[in-house]
Every structure is written in structure tokens, then in C-alpha cells.
Amino acid sequence: MLKEKDNPPVTYPENVSIGDMSGLWWVAHTKSRNEKALANDLIVRDIPYFLPMTWTVTRKTRRPVRSLMPVFTGYMFICGSEDHRVEVLQTHRVANIIDVVDQLEFITELSQVEKALKADVPLTQHHFVKKGQWCRVTAGSLMGLEGIVEDLKGMTRLILQIQMLGQATSVEIDADMVEVIEPPRKGPDTSPFSPSP
Asked: Which of 39, 123, 134, 180 is most buried, judging by how many CB atoms fall within 10 Å of its CB?
């Protein structure tokens, strides 16, 4: 268990928005529990990345344990050149690297997760949702975020989806602060997890 100060930053370089990073984005599918170790390896190699993490509390003994855990277990997002991609593979911490076909859509989706993290709201890993109302947050620190709104255990949550991963995360919101909008138009599903036709 890492001490709080020993955790890698969520983004590298730190304090740089993912929308301002230059290069191509890839999804690194890491070996089990290698997300943070890979992040540290990439810092040493000066390779930009985004590793969304959120604080969780578990009780293994009488005392609660607070840990910073990846939002999307087994995945982190790399930005850079083809040389960077090769270097990531050379860390031996990656099972495979997934190409991002629609770079613009991917950056837009990641930027929403980044904005939620910067707003310091707790994120919960969520099953990918295909049905529900598409909404936009109209006020508060999450204003402008778009996703599917669901009522879970009596709480209204906005589900932020990463299409190509087939995964999602969610944040709690006030139902009075969202408006229903038309869902974004999508091209063919290029997710590596989608069934073959």
C-alpha cells in the first residue's frame, strides 16, 4: 500500500490538461495492478499520460484504509509519438496497447473525466450504460459535463462513458442541475470489446 505522497500524479506532466497534450493517444491495457508502477516508469521516460484515480476507503481490519485507486482498473491513457508507444511496451507492464481510432471523440470523453476529477467529486466505477437519458449539467463545478443520467439507490448520478473501453464512471449530481439533450452522434462502434458482426 503506497503512502499518499508516493502515489504518481493523475496526469503527467502535472498541471497540464489532457486537451493541451500533443501527440496521439493510446490505451494501455496494463498487467494486473501495474497502473501506478507504469505511471512511475513513464515519468522517468518523460512520456505524457492520464491515469484517472479516486480515493476509496476499505475496511480490512477495524481501522479504515484510504487508498488512491484507478477509476478504470487495468487501463491508463498514453499520449505521444510512435517511439513513446514502443517505450511503453518495453516497460513489460503492459498486456497490450489499443489504438484510438477517433482521437477527437476520445479526448472529449477523457476531458469530461478529467473535469470531474478536478472538481474533486468522488467517482464511482460504473457498468457501461447503453440506455437512458443523455443530459448536460447546467450549473455548479461540473457545468458542461454530458452523460447518461440514472437513478441509483435513490441518488441521481451522471454516467461518463469511455466508448472504446466499454467502461464508465459516475458522479453524484443534483437532479435540478441537468437538462436533457440530444445524444452525440456516433460512428460505427470501434470498441475492441464489441461483438463481431
From this structure: 39
Sequence-ordered list of residues with C-beta below 8 angstroms from that of 189, at least 6 positions apart, any chain: 163
Report d(CA 197, CA 194) in Å as an integer.
9
The number of beta carbons lying within 10 Å of the beta carbon of residue 116 is 25
Task: Kindly report, residue by residue over 67-126, the tens digit of the pLDDT.
Answer: 899 999 999 999 999 999 999 999 999 999 999 999 999 999 999 999 999 998 888 877
Q: Is 30 exposed, middle or buried (0-12, 13-18, 19+ CB in 10 A)?
A: buried
Residue type for position 97: I
Residue 129's pLDDT band, with cuts at 50, 70 and 90, is: low
Cα–Cα distance, 56 to 54 (Å, whole number): 6
Domain ranges for the chain, please list them: 1-100, 120-182
Cα Dmax for the chain: 51
Q: Find out if CATH 3.40.1800 is the number for domain 1-100.
A: no
Q: What is the pTM of this model?
A: 0.76
**Grid cell in block for residue 67:** 487508498
